[in-house]
Write a structure and sequence with these properties.
A hairpin with a 2-residue loop joins strand 1 and strand 2. The longest helix is centred in the first third of the chain and has 18 residues. By secondary structure, this protein is α+β, with helices and mostly antiparallel strands. The N terminus is likely disordered.
């Protein structure tokens, strides 16, 4: 994971997207977009508990990064922290994050979701699953899983 993050950082730096040459409003725009993303994901409900991911500190404002990668296009990176290192529902939480953001983000984006480094015993496997479009599509074809995801991402009345 740190290798991927390091490579991504270098690519962004060499492309000028992470240099100090940002247009003055660009960083502010990225920060606004990050808060917008956080506002969408913070109300997702935990699959096992009656709490939101924000209440359980699975997601925080600092776990969201947004980088402009093109004209009106953004790379959104989420790093969430399961409540325990052996959480059996970490993949489901990642799936809920992805589905809610795909449905709700009002701007063009590329989405990457990761478990925070060192926060889960099988983080590499889970990171691969939740960032694989075919696996996500297959998971959402399962009616039982789809129902659980819907319960987690639906806003409370």
């Amino acid at each position: 994971m740190s290798l991927v993050a390091g490579l991504l950082g270098r690519v962004l730096w060499f492309s000028g997207l992470r240099s100090g040459d940002h247009a003055p409003g660009s960083q502010a725009m990225e920060q606004d977009k990050a808060l917008e993303v956080y506002d969408i994901i913070r109300t997702i409900r935990d699959p096992e508990k009656p709490n939101t991911l924000e209440e359980l500190e699975v997601v925080t404002e600092s776990c969201v990064e947004v980088h402009e990668i093109g004209e009106d296009e953004y790379l959104v990176i989420i790093r969430f922290t399961p409540t325990v290192p052996h959480c059996s529902l970490a993949t489901l939480i990642g799936l809920c994050l992805r589905i809610k953001l795909q449905r709700c983000l009002p701007f063009k984006h590329k989405l990457e979701i990761y478990i925070s480094e060192g926060a889960h015993s099988t983080e590499e496997d889970i990171n691969k699953q939740i960032n694989d479009k075919e696996r996500v599509a297959a998971a959402m074809e399962n009616p039982n899983l789809r129902e659980i995801v819907e319960q987690c991402v639906t806003e409370p009345d």
